[in-house]
Amino acid sequence: DAKTTQPNSMESNEEEPVHLPCNHSTISGTDYIHWYRQLPSQGPEYVIHGLTSNVNNRMASLAIAEDRKSSTLILHRATLRDAAVYYCILRATNQAGTALIFGKGTTLSVSS
Amino acid sequence: DADVTQTPRNRITKTGKRIMLECSQTKGHDRMYWYRQDPGLGLRLIYYSFDVKDINKGEISDGYSVSRQAQAKFSLSLESAIPNQTALYFCATSDPLQGAGTDTQYFGPGTRLTVL
User: Fold this and answer.
1) Lowest CB count within 10 Å: A64, A89, B19, B26, which one?
2) Are the CB atoms for A109 and A10 separated by under 8 Å?
3) Do B110 and A42 touch (CB under 8 A)?
4) How far apart are CA B10 and CA A109, in angstroms?
5) Are β-strands A106-111 and B64-70 bridged in parallel, bridged antiparallel, or unpaired?
C-alpha cells in the first residue's frame, strides 16, 4: 500500500490560515487522497477527498500537486475547534469498503 | 441526533468477563466496521460487515467476535476480556453506493474500555 508522510505536529493562531502537508511519493494513479480529523475524545470525521484536481468544501480545501506526490489540506481560518489530529489517507479504487489505514497524523494546535 | 451511536461510552470491567459493545446507525448504510485505537497509535480494524449476512475478520480479530443483528446494528463482544484489550473502540459505517475509492466512513463517538 502506498504510504503517507505527515509532520507530527503544527501550531497555528486563531483566524489564520493553516496548511497541513502530506507526502505520498508512491501514490498510484487510482489512489484517492482522503483527509480525516479526530477531535479530542471523538471519533474520526471525514474532511475532504480528491483525485487530481483541487477540491473545496465547507470545511477545507485540498490542493493536490500536479505530480500527485504531495497534497496540502488548507483550513482558511483556523478556529479553536479545529485543534485535532489530521490524517492523510490514500484509498485505491479497489479498496471501497475496506479499512481506513490511519497513520499517526499531524496534531494541530490552535492558539487564541 | 447522532447518526452513529455507541453504547456504553465508558466501561470498566475485570479480566475474564464477557463484555458487549453496541453500535447503532440511522444512516441506512450497509457497511459497518469496528476499530480499536490505542494511545499514540492509529485505528486498527477488528471486524467488518458488508451486510447482515456478511461478516469479515480484520487485522486484529483474535479475542473478539461480532454480531450483525440488523442493517442498523453491529455488536462487538470480548469473550474473555484481558488487560491488553483496554482501548478506545470505534464503530463506523459507509455507503457502498458512493463509489470505489471515494466511500466515506462515518464514525461513532467511541467506547472507552478498561480491563482491570
Assistant:
1) B26
2) yes
3) yes
4) 26
5) unpaired
- With an 8 Å Cβ cutoff, is A44 touching chain B? yes
- Percent of chain B whose pLDDT exceeds 70: 93
DSSP type of residue B30: S
Contact in structure between A87 and A38 (CB atoms under 8 Å): yes
**Spatial contact of A96 and B100, defined as CB atoms under 8 Å apart:** yes
Residues 14-43 of A with CB under 8 A from B: 30-32, 34, 41-43
Residue indicated by cell numbers 479553536: A80
Taking contacts as CB-CB distances below 8 angstroms, the residues of chain B near A49 are: 102, 104
The DSSP result for B34-91, as a single string, is EEEE-TTS-EEEEEEEEETTEEEE-TT-TTEEEEEEETTEEEEEESS--GGG-EEEEE
**Which DSSP string do the residues of A52-63 spell out, in sequence order?**
SS-EE-SS-EEE
Tell me the pLDDT tens digit for each residue of B57-115: 998 999 999 999 999 999 999 999 999 999 999 999 988 766 656 778 999 999 999 99
